[in-house]
Amino acid sequence: MKLTMAKNSLFAILLRSSWWISLLIGLLLGLLSFALLPEHLRVVGALSGFPFIVISLIAARRQWHLPSAARIEQTQQALATMAWPAFAALLEQAFRRDGYTLVPQGKGGADAAFDFELERQGRRMLVSARRWKSARTGLEALRALQGAREVRQADEALYIGLAALSDNARPYAAEQRITLWQAPELAHALRGLPLPATERR
To answer: Is residue 80 classed exposed, middle or buried when 0-12, 13-18 and 19+ CB atoms within 10 A define those classes?
Structure first.
């Protein structure tokens, strides 16, 4: 039986929060225990903060390579100015760096449901990215991508777009296991690659 952490449990919330919050809670519990508890209970009381220290270390490890808010904003602004050929070339560099091989016949046209077909370690993924500057990501584009995924029997599907998702698009993506890349994910995926110089700060 596989145990999972409740999404809204205290520890789950702390894992999604900045790592220093858990560290602060752990340290405060230790200090309060030494200040308020009888001497023979101080060590036991201080140990109550240990789980929060562990959560802090786990959160810090997860967040170590995440882009900063400034980097995310910079990436979003830069990508919003790019033309499709330049953006596609940038994505190809990122995919190849991450170990993917581009399948030539998988590249779609302007009206295709996907733009790249990638392969890595025997698994194939379809990527839809041409609408990355659309004002809103709706259900239609995700359904088209999922339909192409089923036809080509691809293992994974990735949709790339800077815009917010419609109310029914995000649940559909979760149900169909379609990975979504928006500004934070793109900032991480494109780390170290050159963005338009006019958008740099």
So the answer is: middle
